[in-house]
């Protein structure tokens, strides 16, 4: 069966979708099985459109989308047995209880794990008899997540799972997501603009800005490529333009250079001009996100 | 959680470096002994709530440094090098000394001056400890 023949949980190739005021342009990404991918981008960047295409909810104009070996949107019915999808606008019935929803999902999905569902109720501090309309935002998010997690799907697709949650609820959700990864055969794709969550739990990172994909790769390799170099430059010496340096800010004798392709040779190259490298700093994903978006927007506008 | 490592959000170093550091500390302290099995990559990732790839990176670098050994299908263990704990403590001292030497050089200090400063620091610590008794 094709679904078993691939080591990729998700593969998008050249996926494009045009709207009147927005184009999702030529998206390529690969998520290996057993890994978590964080999809990062500002509001309106195209994260939700990307997710809707790979769920078969929106049909791409061109390009290929394969999810668990199924072509989307053509084979979405077969694919959806093994995909758990949760988004903010997921509709639960207000007048029904969480327990009613649990029984409903259980009646559809034979792989429903009742013991795990009970455990999640406890861990998330939820009660089955509670009606949906009485729930807080955080409780709703956790309820929706419980309903997909207890199905034990091979792939979880989560649109902004931690947005608007208090720190404790966020922590509870991140813990459940990472514990899913104890099983090497399960994968997660989630979108977020909380870069700290993405930095903590993702194996793969994909950046989208204004409908274009800026980067998509292994998180450790990615973080490793970015550095900030703090330099002391004697007055009268101009810093040379070096490959891999995307930004230099200088005031007087002090300069800060940002690299997106760091190698130790960069530091030696600066030193050979008479500058002194005071410090080479790692960058957080948040700092990289901002630097990257600014840099790629400049490139587009040139 | 067995022997939970604790990561810090205010620690500016990458998470994989923090993981390496804490594993070395456990070995240096003698809590993890030579040849002892350690958590699998996936298990530690779940325990620490970080990505598998981050722990993999830490284990890979620890293996390159000869601190742990990973065998396919058998998991990872502390390397069987005799005196590994003492070696790691020595290494840590060396790093601090190199850092001090670097700053001294930047300040234009001669090695003898640094030696004096080191002796003074030792005296101050000894004095503080006497006061505590």
The separation of the N and C termini of chain B measures 37 Å
Question: What would you call the shape of chain A?
Answer: elongated
Count of DSSP helices of chain A? 11
Shape of chain B: elongated
Radius of gyration of chain B: 18 Å
Query: How do the strands line up in the largest sheet of chain A?
Result: 6-7-8-3-9-10
Spatial strand order of the main sheet of chain B: 1-3-2
Instruction: Provide the residue-averaged pLDDT of chain A.
Output: 92
Approximately how much beta-strand content do the residues of chain B carry?
A: 5-15%
Residue windows where pLDDT falls under 50 for at least 5 positions of chain A? none
Total strands of chain B: the figure is 3
Structural class of chain A: alpha/beta
Descriptive report:
The complex is a heterodimer of chains A (302) and B (133). With 302 residues, chain A is of the alpha/beta class. Helix content of chain A is 34%, strand content 29%. Chain A has helices at 2-5, 47-54, 76-79, 98-108, 114-123, 137-149, 167-180, 195-201, 219-225, 264-271, 285-301; strands spanning 8-18, 23-32, 36-40, 62-67, 70-72, 83-86, 155-159, 187-192, 204-209, 212-218, 227-232, 245-251, 254-259, 276-282. The longest helix of chain A has 17 residues, at 285-301. The N and C termini of chain A lie far apart (48 Å). The model of chain A has no long low-confidence stretch (mean pLDDT 92). Chain B has 133 residues and is mainly alpha-helical. Chain B contains 5 helices and 3 strands; from the N terminus they run H-E-H-H-E-E-H-H. Chain B has a 3-stranded antiparallel beta sheet with strand order 1-3-2. In chain B, helix 1 crosses helix 3 (52-64), helix 1 packs across helix 4 and helix 2 (41-48) packs across helix 3 (52-64). Chain B starts with 14 loop residues before the first helix and ends with a helix. Classes of the chains: A alpha/beta (302), B mainly alpha (133). The interface between A and B is medium-sized, with 23 and 18 residues.
């Amino acid at each position: 069966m094709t679904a078993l023949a691939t080591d990729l949980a998700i593969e998008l190739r050249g996926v494009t979708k045009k709207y009147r005021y927005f184009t999702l342009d030529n998206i390529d990404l690969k998520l290996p099985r057993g890994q978590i991918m964080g999809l990062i981008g500002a509001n309106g960047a195209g994260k939700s459109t990307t997710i809707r295409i790979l769920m078969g909810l929106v049909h791409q104009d061109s390009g290929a989308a394969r999810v668990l070996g199924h072509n989307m949107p053509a084979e979405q019915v077969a694919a959806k047995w093994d995909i758990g999808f949760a988004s903010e606008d997921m509709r639960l019935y207000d007048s029904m209880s969480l327990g009613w929803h649990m029984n409903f999902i259980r009646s559809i999905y034979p792989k429903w794990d009742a013991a795990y569902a009970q455990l999640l109720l406890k861990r998330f501090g939820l009660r089955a008899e509670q009606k949906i309309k009485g729930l807080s935002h955080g409780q709703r998010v956790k309820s929706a997540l419980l309903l997909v997690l207890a199905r034990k799907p091979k792939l979880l697709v989560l649109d902004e799972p931690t947005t608007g949650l208090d720190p404790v609820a966020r922590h509870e959700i991140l813990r459940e997501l990472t514990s899913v990864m104890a099983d090497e055969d399960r994968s997660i794709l989630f979108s977020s603009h909380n870069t700290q969550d993405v930095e903590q739990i993702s194996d793969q990172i994909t950046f989208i800005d204004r409908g274009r994909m800026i980067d998509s790769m292994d998180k450790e390799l990615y973080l490793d490529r970015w550095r900030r170099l703090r330099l002391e430059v004697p007055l009268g010496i101009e810093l040379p333009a070096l490959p891999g340096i995307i930004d230099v800010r200088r005031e007087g004798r002090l300069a800060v250079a940002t690299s997106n392709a760091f190698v130790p040779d960069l530091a030696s190259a600066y030193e050979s001009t008479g500058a002194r490298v005071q410090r080479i700093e790692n960058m957080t994903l948040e700092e990289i996100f901002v630097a990257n978006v600014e840099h790629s927007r400049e490139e587009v506008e040139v | 959680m067995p022997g939970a490592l604790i990561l810090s959000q205010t620690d500016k170093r990458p998470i994989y470096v923090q993981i390496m550091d804490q594993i070395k500390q456990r070995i240096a302290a003698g809590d993890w002994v030579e040849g002892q099995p350690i958590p699998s990559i996936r298990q530690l990732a779940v325990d620490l709530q970080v990505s598998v790839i981050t722990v993999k990176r830490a284990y890979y670098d620890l293996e390159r440094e000869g601190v742990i050994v990973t065998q396919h299908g058998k998991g990872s263990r502390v390397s069987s090098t005799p005196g590994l704990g003492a070696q790691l403590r020595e290494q840590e001292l060396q790093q601090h000394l190199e850092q001090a030497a670097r700053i001294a050089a930047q300040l234009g200090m001669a090695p003898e001056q640094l030696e004096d400063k080191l002796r003074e620091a030792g005296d101050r610590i000894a004095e503080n400890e006497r006061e505590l008794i």
